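Field reference: "sequence" (input) and "structure" (output). Example, HAD-IA family hydrolase:
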Amino acid sequence: MSRSALQAALFDMDGTLVDTERLWWDAVAEVAAGLGRTLTAADQPDVLGRPVEHTAAWLAGRTGADRDALAAELHREFADRVRTGTVPRPGALELLRALAREGVPTALVTASPRAVADTVLDVLGRDLFAVSVTADDTEHTKPAPDPYLAACRALGVDPAACVAVEDTRTGVTSAEAAGCVVLAVPSLAPIEEAPGRTVRESLAGVTPASLRQLVAPDGPALRVMTWNLWCGGTKVRDHRAKQLKVITETGVDVVGLQETYGTAAQELAEALGWHHHRAGDNLGIISRHPITARLGDPDVGFYGAAGVRIRTDSGTEVDIWTVHLDYTPYGPYEAAFDGLPASELIAHEQVRLAQLRDCLRRIDDTAPGAPGATAVPVVLVGDFNSPSHLDRPDVDWPVTRAAEASGLRDSFREAHPDPVREPGHTWSPVHALHEDGSGRPEPQDRIDFVLHRGLAVLDSRTQVSGTPRPWPDVEDNDWPSDHAAVITTFALEPGARE
């Protein structure tokens, strides 16, 4: 897929780029309350994403008030809130600036009047948009396709080669009717995925490469899994067959393995007809794509790191590393059971931190060093046995912080930036209670990661098959591990590199 496949990015304003959808709802709620009506969730279709005139007519029909007077009052209430309370949505400015750097044209397409849009443009930066279309600029506004068609005409682009970013069903209907590909980032009301429509929690982590992939979804991609096999899988009956079933059903291309018990990587690769690398008795990597180099220490101990360089079908080279860090002392236990303060928890991470830094040094040592050489993207996966500073802000967990400082990004948190809504726990699908028999709940945490440098994240998720029975009754589980796996799909075209 070429970089020119994406011709433009078209952005809704309220609730998408700036947090004004709630301001609009509050403005309508206040006007309605003055007329003796309380808004409910059932009123959202006539409020969210709608032009002022529509909501005024709807409210007039239910209260008997004058429609034109209501429209004027709604304008005033909303404009006052916008002037004092406009806040960019997470990731919005970063994406707009990245598109500007890469020369991708952008348009603001809103059902708000010109006066409100101009106020928001002053906040975001007018230079970030080549075109703006408001409710004052077309005969019909959203959900009709007119606003998006007008923006495409002004930019001279094909709607089918544009991504429209919306937060409401009304806006999605408008963009899809115009023929645009849609990225939905719901603000107040949920939006379902559909053909030609992708749903993300927010714009955080969305890049120009992500948008290009939406326009041409059949472009080259790489799906990477990290998986702790749990004593090679030997705790579960028919573990090798169950491992193969997981790998084939998930459609992954590369798997970074921990706790291989020596032979797992070779046996899995031979059964799949794949390539493999074994490092010591605990680490391995299997790959659908050819391995062109083996990186790191082939005789690494139980804890440490190992890597390979693969060449994908599209010709892109990627370095894949797998790491397993020491599990003692285990921070979540010390926090939950011993009540240690953050300073002590951080101090007790020094062994893992040293192991990770050794891994990061090896990664840097194997990177192409010739002047002008193209950077090879890096993916580091593994069982870190440490929580993330992105998940638990009460403790600045140093292991993931060090990885971030080296330029590695957490693919799961890029795809799911809210740890409350999407915790992504990987420890443990079989341990609900602590195994010491005390009956204490087992701390659930995200300790397995797919980190990367130089790629664009298309999707990331945890994986557990079936409903595993809890320890110790695990022998017949379909899921042959005590960890959840993490699977991330990356875009591979040259435009995906950062």
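The radius of gyration is 26 Å.
The first helix runs from residue 21 to 34.
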